[in-house]
Specification:
38% of the residues lie in helices and 20% in strands. It is elongated, with a radius of gyration of 31 Å. With 454 residues, the chain is of the alpha/beta class. Strands 9-10-11-8-12-15-14-13 form an eight-stranded mixed sheet. A seven-stranded parallel sheet has the order 3-2-4-1-5-6-7, with helices on both faces.
């Protein structure tokens, strides 16, 4: 930390590498550095492949160095979807800055992340900010029309356009055209530059931004440095505007909100993969998908059901203890024939009739006090209910017991040697979390456990 705060280039490099490699030591380091940040101005440079982003970033960094400011550059390159490797070509293009001790250049691979940035770009910005870089330039991968992640990270976003990129309809499409605070038409020595300027001007005349800023249109030839001074002046004007109207403050608030949500998604996903899915259950679920015995939404519901603590998503915050009879499942050959009989017995029509597709069963449920009767008809010849009726005839198929904490009940039963059909709860009728115990451990009776609180 002390070496980074002193601007030591080797320490900065090691820190960014540890972040990219997900080294456990990176998180405590980032926590220690974060209070020392917040001073750097972050400029996002985006545009299509071949627009001249690397050359423009190089010239822009040279201009900031003439002003005496320390500059950090994060150049993002695409990653191979097959090998995971990357040719970090952006850094090769910035040789004029390589020996300047006040400029730090880091190439970063996207590592499969969409949006034009690398997964750890924000953490790298934190490190460069703490190291004393007053300007951090982020050059995105050559992005498409809807890759707009840089706008959520940068204080100001510059969009590069070049002549000959398509018809004027492209200019009016939603996406990357909407995130630009400044438009830069690069390679204006080529034919068609004036037309690009007219198209962007026409687009801007049809829109207005909530913050009141009207993006400027600048012309550059990055290879010669033409227009770079005017670009830095336009960036300065936006910073003054942003500070005066608190545009920058609102952007940074929204950025950190998005950052927390991203970290939350990432952490929760990693916990899901490292925990419940590490036992091979995901492969078994995928096998079920290949056999069309279930569907992707059902698989996700089952995984989430195993992750979320009992009652966490329930309207009853205090689950009752112990088990009670939830329902009795009766296999029938035909619901059309069986429903009228039971309707006479219980004195009312079924409360619920539904089809549970992944279990290949139709259900008619009669509520009886705190319990209920469920009539079950197989929808296909190979369904469990159809096979039961074919082998044993109509009759009691299973007994369902209600438990307050299904994962805990399964864990205890398995530890006591009870054979389980379902080690992970799944979703049954009425969207309830259920699991079955094998009849070999229950005296020949199929027992269903249903999670229920009262």
């Amino acid at each position: 930390m002390e070496e980074i705060l002193a601007g030591d280039r080797r320490a900065i490099a090691r820190a960014i590498s540890s972040v990219e490699n997900r080294d456990p030591s990176a998180i405590p380091l980032l926590r220690a550095l974060f209070p020392k940040t917040g001073r750097a101005r972050v400029v996002g440079i985006t545009g299509s492949p071949g627009a001249g982003k690397s050359t423009l970033v190089e010239k822009l960094a040279e201009e900031y160095r003439r002003r005496g400011e320390r500059v950090g550059i994060l150049a993002v390159d695409p990653t191979s979807p097959y090998s995971g490797g990357a040719i970090l070509g952006d850094r090769v293009r910035m040789q004029s800055l390589a020996h300047d001790p006040a400029v730090y250049i880091r190439s970063m691979a996207t590592r499969g992340q969409l949006g034009g940035l690398a997964p750890t770009t924000q953490d790298a910005v934190t490190i460069l900010d703490a190291a004393g870089c007053e300007i951090v330039l982020i050059e995105t991968v050559g992005v498409g029309q809807d890759e707009v992640e840089v706008a959520r990270l940068a204080d100001v976003t510059v969009l590069l356009l070049v002549p000959g990129q398509g018809d004027d309809i492209q200019t009016f499409k939603a996406g990357v055209m909407e995130i630009a605070d400044l438009f830069v038409i690069n390679k204006v020595d080529r034919p068609g530059a004036d037309r690009v300027e007219q198209e962007v001007t026409a687009m801007l005349s049809l829109t207005s931004r909530p913050d009141g800023w009207r993006p400027s249109i600048l012309k550059t030839i990055a290879t010669t440095g033409r227009g770079i001074t005017e670009l830095t002046q336009a960036l300065d004007q936006f910073y003054v505007f942003g500070e005066k109207g608190d545009v920058t403050g609102r952007r940074r608030k929204e950025h950190w909100r998005s950052r927390v949500l991203d970290l939350l998604r990432q952490t929760l996903f990693e916990q899901a993969v490292a925990g419940p899915l590490s036992d091979g259950s995901l492969d078994r679920q995928v096998d079920g998908l290949l056999a069309h015995q279930t569907d992707p939404h059902q698989v996700v519901d089952q995984i989430i059901a195993a992750l979320i603590p009992a009652g966490a998503n329930s309207p009853c915050p205090s689950p009752r203890s112990g088990a009670t009879v939830h329902h009795l499942g009766i296999a029938v050959e035909s619901l059309v024939q069986a429903i009228p009989v039971f309707q006479q017995l219980v004195g009312k029509a079924p409360d619920v009739e539904e089809t549970v597709a992944d279990q290949k069963v139709r259900v008619a449920s009669f509520r009886l006090g705190d319990s209920r009767l469920e009539l079950l008809e197989g929808t296909e010849g190979d369904s469990p209910i159809a096979r039961f009726v074919s082998k044993r005839g109509p009759g009691i198929h299973h007994l369902a017991l209600a438990v307050p904490d299904l994962p805990e009940a399964l864990r205890k039963l398995e530890s006591e040697g009870v054979r389980l059909i379902d080690r992970i709860p799944r979703v049954g009728a009425a969207s309830e979390r259920i699991a079955f115990l094998h009849p070999s451990s229950t005296g020949g009776i199929l027992i269903e456990l249903v999670e229920e609180c009262k």
